[in-house]
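Changelog note: in this version the structure field was regenerated for every chain. One regenerated record is shown below for reference.
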Amino acid sequence: MTSDPASPIDTAPVSPTPATNSSKFRFKSKDLSPSESCRKSHSSSSHRHHHRHHHRSKRRRSPSPQPSLSPNTAFRESLFDALADDEGAAFWEGVYGQPIHTYSPYVPGSNSDGANGKLEKMDDEEYVAYVRSKMWEKSHAFIVEERKRREESRKSKKRKEEEEDIFAKGVEDALRRGDERRRRGKWKACWEDYGKAWENQELETDKRLRERRLWPVESRRWEDVGKEEVERFYKNAPQPTVTGQHPDLGVILKLERVKWHPDKIQQRFGSRGIDETTMKTVTAVFQVIDRMWSMTRGG
């Protein structure tokens, strides 16, 4: 059986279906709306701006500052760096304006072992302080000189004041010795007159006892007799000398005690009349002498 020839419909070629409007709208639906596109653009721009700002912040950030050294520590480090080599010495000389590596580390004038000539060496802290002081002196030479000048002036003024004080003290001592010499001379003359009056008392038969200059006081008058005056008279008795010219006070008081005993006075002057008031004065003189004599004996 033979097949029938194909009909025109079956054999006609099929042409491609043209794109419909719905397919075009579906393609456009994948794009963003204007408002969404604007938000997207703004978000992307903000991200890029933040990214760039982040990188700039990293580039601008500086390292954390290191803690600074104290002036003492800094100078110590620079000193030992200068001592290490010539390059360091030259560098720090330029910084300080003078060499800092030329000072000896030994104590000036020290000698701990005189036989071997060994010098005492400073420790690090002492050496640093020593170098700083010498540098200061060199940098402030005029201040150092002015201090020396003032110190010399102060010492000179002090020496002058001391010399003036010594001179003034010498003058005072001389005046005091002169006063003492005159005082001793006065009392020496007083005691000499007292002794002569007693030696010559037998010649004054016409005077009563109270009228005579026999009383042991400076004026040797009865009216001036009193405890203090009698004590002062005997305390200024002639001092004993090396040659034994004058006895000591104990011997003098012993003799005077006998002389001024009331009974002895009555025996010696009673015939010429002694009134009661005069005898009371005699008794008072004897009591002062007796007490002073007992004190010289340790009583």
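Spot check on this record: DSSP finds eleven helices and no strands in the chain. Residues 141-199 form the longest helix (59 residues).
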